[in-house]
Amino acid sequence: MQLKNDLILRAARGEKTEKTPVWVMRQAGRILAEYREVRASVSGFKELVETPELAAEVTIQPVDLLGVDAAIIFSDILVIPEAMGLEYEMVEQKGPHFPKTISSEADLSSIKIASDEDIQYTIDAIKITKKRLDGRVPIIGFAGAPWTIFSYMVEGGGSKTFSKARRMLYQDPKLSHKLLDLITQSTVAYLKGQIAAGADMVQVFDSWAGVLPPDQYREFSLKYIQQICQEIREVPITVFAKGAFFALADMNNVDCRTVGLDWNMDIEGTKALLPTKTLQGNLDPCLLYSDYDMITAETHKMLKRFDGHAHIANLGHGVYPDTDPDKVKHFIQTVQNFEKP
Ligand code: CP3
To answer: Are 25 and 315 in contact (CB under 8 A)?
Structure first.
């Protein structure tokens, strides 16, 4: 199907574009009243993820309501551990919880390498979204990076320090590598399934990259991200490693097209470190709590800083749930109305 707006794909390939494409991490769900309405019609978050018609509907909402240049499929990174054999619960107001976790070699025998068919609901949601979007904007598929998924499978939920997951890397590196390898194989199959279903590009979220020391990050995270990038040749791939400023130069050795920057990362410095990569980001999501003039000024400042480099505009992490959607829309329109010098 011919895309009517392929700006983000051209920027991801490193081409010069007339405008800077823009989307917002976590744009589907969270901030829109229209999302909360759909969410209230089902028993919980998981039912929404697992009902392809509804997942497609909330995927398209930000395209209609915010005017973003890409749709990201409504799902979660936690579908992978579940497909491998560790079910999760999404606890209201608290976040994810895994009743069963991995702490020993014996636990590995209770999990398997997942195939894309184990996550058929998201694959189907992509197919429906593709049809309904009718080429208006590209679809972004996604998965968690193996290290971030490993953290959930070992910790059983979120954590301030991730010390259980970090401890395992020292106490049992062999077990850690085995688990990371199983996650990596599952993730490759899942991403390939998303692409076959219609995802035009994919993003790997390494949300907890920033908790590891640099050497360990290379050994236990980047190595597996690189394996994924080597396998995914069909579409442009973005790596977003939150907090991993220490690994930016290493991204030159990773076969991804785009590198996501969080708001702590220095734009000029990163441009110099990564001359051939497209860069994505990187406004502080808290900017969107300020007034319209401040949002305009800071967005212009960011766009000028990225000038001369292939760029996809975004926030430096997911939009916060209590952000006013009109402010998000203002950010998007400011990018789209910006005349490149
Ligand atoms: O980007 C999008 O809008 C698409 C959908 C999407 C969700 N989760 C839906 C969701 C995406 C891309 C994710 C990724 C995700 N999930 C990450 C990586 C990105 C990041 O923010 O670092 C992580 C770490 C998770 C795990 C997760 N899922 C947590 C910690 C929570 C609870 C707190 C929260 O973020 O809201 C979720 C739940 C979740 N995933 C919600 C949504 C819309 C909120 C649940 C609800 O509607 O009740």
So the answer is: yes
Name the 3-class secondary structure at 261: coil
Cα(14)–Cα(237) distance, rounded to whole angstroms?
12
> Does the beta carbon of 198 lie inside 6 Å of ligand 1?
no
The structure tokens listed for 272 are 């110099």
Taking residue 199's Cβ as centre, other Cβ atoms within 10 Å add up to 27
d(CA 246, CA 209): 10
Q: Is 292 a catalytic residue?
A: no
Index of the ligand 1 atom closest to the CA of residue 205: 18
| Domains of the chain, earliest start first | 7-337 (3.20.20.210)
pLDDT band for position 274 (cuts 50, 70, 90): very high
> Does pLDDT of 1 surpass 80?
no
Q: Whose CA is nearest to atom 5 of ligand 1?
A: 74
Residue 136 falls in the annotated catalytic set: no
What are the tens digits of pLDDT across the range 284-332? Answer: 999 999 999 999 999 999 999 999 999 999 999 999 999 999 999 999 9
Nearest to 157 by CA among 208, 211, 98: 98
Q: Closest Cα to residue 300, out of 240, 243, 250, 340?
A: 340
Residue whose tokens read 């990596």: 184
Q: Does the beta carbon of 238 sit less than 6 angstroms from any atom of ligand 1?
A: no
Mean pLDDT of the chain: 97
